[in-house]
Amino acid sequence: MAAxxxxxxxVFAAGPPQFVTEPVPPLFxxxxxxxxxxxxxRQTERGNVILAGYPRTAADAIANRAPVPPVKTLAAxxxxxxxxxxxxxxHVIRVWSGIxxxxxxxxxxxxPSLTTPRLFHAFGFCGHGFQIGPGVGxxxxxxxxxxxxxxPLDPFSIxxxxxxAVVSDKFRQEFD
Length: 176
Ligand SMILES: Cc1cc2nc3c(=O)[nH]c(=O)nc-3n(C[C@H](O)[C@H](O)[C@H](O)COP(=O)(O)OP(=O)(O)OC[C@H]3O[C@@H](n4cnc5c(N)ncnc54)[C@H](O)[C@@H]3O)c2cc1C
Known about the structure:
- By secondary structure, this protein is an alpha+beta fold.
- 22% of the residues lie in helices and 20% in strands.
- It has helices spanning 70-83, 129-146, 169-175, and strands spanning 12-15, 18-21, 32-33, 40-43, 49-52, 57-58, 92-96, 100-102, 109-112, 120-123.
- Strand 4 and strand 5 (49-52) form a beta hairpin.
- Bound molecules: flavin-adenine dinucleotide (FAD).
- Flavin-adenine dinucleotide is lined by residues 15-16, 18, 97-98, 100, 123, 125, 127-131.
- Flavin-adenine dinucleotide (FAD) binds next to helix 2.
């Protein structure tokens, strides 16, 4: 869409792989997340463990498909077993993913168009749009209604892609 207004951002599709195990006896109540993001897990009341983990999987926005290759399932379960050894032999009963927009510096584009007055961008949430969605909505509404937002958005400007894109270490970890 931004390209229709003469602006470019190297956004591409990828998907966070998700897994759910068979129900197992209660093991942990808070959600778990390892610093490197290789394990993000929570256990439901029914006992199933819902697991997500980096790296992401390839996705095809045109075909609207984000398959999870079995090698990702095995890698995720190995990572989970390192954190919760009691789950080393639990069975995965379902996997899924979806299509998300990613940018090389792993942060979204949020802010006014640099070519078109009254056009505002918010895309490429790199896997964390749920978390920041309400805040993004607030910033957009402030810019649209009040003409400005007190939230500093320069790091999210689409203008950052006018020069060579900065590639974050996290991006290299995941997609190289
Ligand atoms: C499996 C999975 C797990 C995730 N887990 C988390 C998580 O734990 N925490 C987190 O913060 N984020 C998570 N995310 C990321 C989060 O879903 C996204 O960052 C967020 O949904 C992006 O919001 P969006 O509004 O930019 O895009 P979307 O939510 O994709 O919304 C875009 C909307 O535009 C509509 N649309 C598309 N084309 C057109 C058109 N031409 N005209 C009109 N409408 C159109 C689509 O139908 C869709 O409703 C996850 C994503 C996936 C796929």
